[in-house]
Design goal:
Radius of gyration: 16 Å
Strand order of the largest sheet: 1-2
Helix content: 40-55%
Number of strands: 2
Structural class: mainly alpha
Distance between the termini: 29 Å
Length: about 120
């Protein structure tokens, strides 16, 4: 699931959390987040069916989202000089659809098989 939001702030993150909670209302969602201020704000109201798991600081290698962004940069934004925010938003929509339509790819680039083997 994705939302293109106007700012990386607490208000937008709250909208995202509420949207995820509603879409997956019958499921418990574990959401892995980095230490951005909007992810740990005291102003957030975490929905009952969402658990936020904060990553340790300075550990991008543990953040599966970083791998997704690498894929998006390579496949969607590679060698593009966009001239407007509308073009950026169009590319973000294209990227989101690409990720959404390729769940096997997402699993392969965001899973940590070496962790499962050691458990």
């Amino acid at each position: 699931m994705y939302l293109v939001m106007p700012a990386p702030d607490t208000e937008c993150f709250q909208i995202f959390l509420d949207t995820v909670a509603k879409k997956y209302s019958k499921e418990l969602v574990l959401l892995v987040v980095d230490g951005a201020g909007n992810h740990r704000s005291d102003e957030l109201e975490i929905p009952a069916n969402i658990i936020l798991q904060l990553l340790p600081p300075y550990a991008p290698e543990l953040n599966p989202q970083e791998n997704i962004w690498d894929e998006i940069r390579e496949k969607i934004f590679k060698n593009h000089a966009l001239k407007s925010m509308n073009e950026v938003n169009d590319k973000l929509d294209e990227a989101a659809l690409y990720i959404e339509r390729n769940p096997t790819l997402v699993k392969s680039i965001t899973s940590f098989p070496y962790i499962a083997k050691s458990l």
